[in-house]
Amino acid sequence: MSSKLSLPDSETINLESSGKSPFLSGSTTRRQFLVRAAGTAAATTGMSALAAALSGCGTPNVNTGKGQAVLNFYHESTPGEVLTYKKIIAKFEAANPNIKIQLQSGNNGAHLQKFNTQLAGGSPPDITRMWEIDYGGYAKKGVFLDLNTFIDKDNQFAEKVKPDIYPDLAKLFTWENKFYVMPDQLTTVALFYNKDHVREAGLTMPSSWTDTSWTWDKFTDYAGKLGQTSAGRTTRYGYAEAWNFAFSATCAVAVANGGHWFGDKAINPGDTDSNLSDPKVAQAIQWYADLSNVKKVAAAEKSLQSQSGYQLFQTGKASMCIVGHWFYDAFSQTSGLNFDIAPVPVGPSGSRSGTNLEGTGISIVARSQYPDEAWRFVKYWGGPEANLERLNWLPTLKSVGSSAEFKKANAALDHATLFTEALEVGAAAAEPVSRAWPNFSTDWLTILDDIWNGKKSAADLKALDSKVNKAIQAYG
């Protein structure tokens, strides 16, 4: 056997190659957007700015000579996340004295670059953090072990923990019937709103994904009533884009209109599966753009150049925004900001509200010398005790997502469980998980941005479908 693993194609692992910056300067991945945007938001609350990167040198996989296996664990994380990791690791090591977990830090500014270098050099870590958008290329090349091979022999996990994982989240990390990533974080978005603004306007917000009275027309009416002007200038927007227009429109608003990019084939889609021109998807994208271009009830893109949408919301200059739980800490520590969440409004073709589905987790690298020990850590990492240590994230287990502990950790929200309830009622739809993502994401982001700016319309989505499908076909 070769001493080096075959890497996924460079287009898959080098997401910086997707070119256009869809989020913040120099950012091209959803994961980087979450880290950088959350860091900016935290800074505006007076908290210490998140470090740009955490440097660290890897150590070879060794046995300490004390009967102790050393497992190298690669990650790209914020300082706060590392503190959480260390708490979990300490508890695991106390219960498993024959295993030591050695953290290896990557560079947040060069996503997975260090991991890829280790793979190419034949000295990869035993375990790595992994993101839903990235894992498919590695799985296809045999970089990771199928966790099902361990679960099939672990009755306790198979009977008590695996069924507790949100099924759609487990499916998100299942590639060609193999389960490659143990989920550790669920990501869905919701409509954040300023409770004081809503109360002062005499409005009532919905609190259920199945509330079909929360229509586009009602949302537009609310956004108009919540906005404020003075001397012909907008002093408060009823709504502001706080995530990214393309993602919000395609992966949340369209889902709430009964549309889903790639439909039930979002994980490893084929070269005929892109359906952005589906009327349910196209109608939602156009409606979302028209909120600023036609209805004038939302901040236009040019209005977000000096202050982003989440900052407008954070400072009371916008009343509503769609974004994820990752901003909870920043928002909850902002003095005077009284907020809650509601579902995304339901489109005319939708039967209920809808949202996106993303996630992260950890994988076992196939070349690990200690696969059984690695599994012991991975199953603990995905289990209830570790989930309860990570309540600053959305939990991956149903029992934790509905727990009193989760509600207490998110006490600033009256309806915190809306995030997890989306999976319980089937309202969360997976974002595309494709090895060809870097091949088609730039065209998607560019054309959706042009629709937001009024330069193009939903009529251009049919041609975009063709580009996306050709990109997938070219990938092989």
From TrEMBL:
<dbReference type="Pfam" id="PF01547">
    <property type="entry name" value="SBP_bac_1"/>
</dbReference>
<dbReference type="InterPro" id="IPR006059">
    <property type="entry name" value="SBP"/>
</dbReference>
<protein>
    <submittedName>
        <fullName>ABC transporter substrate-binding protein</fullName>
    </submittedName>
</protein>
<dbReference type="InterPro" id="IPR050490">
    <property type="entry name" value="Bact_solute-bd_prot1"/>
</dbReference>
<feature type="region of interest" description="Disordered">
    <location>
        <begin position="1"/>
        <end position="23"/>
    </location>
</feature>
<dbReference type="InterPro" id="IPR006311">
    <property type="entry name" value="TAT_signal"/>
</dbReference>
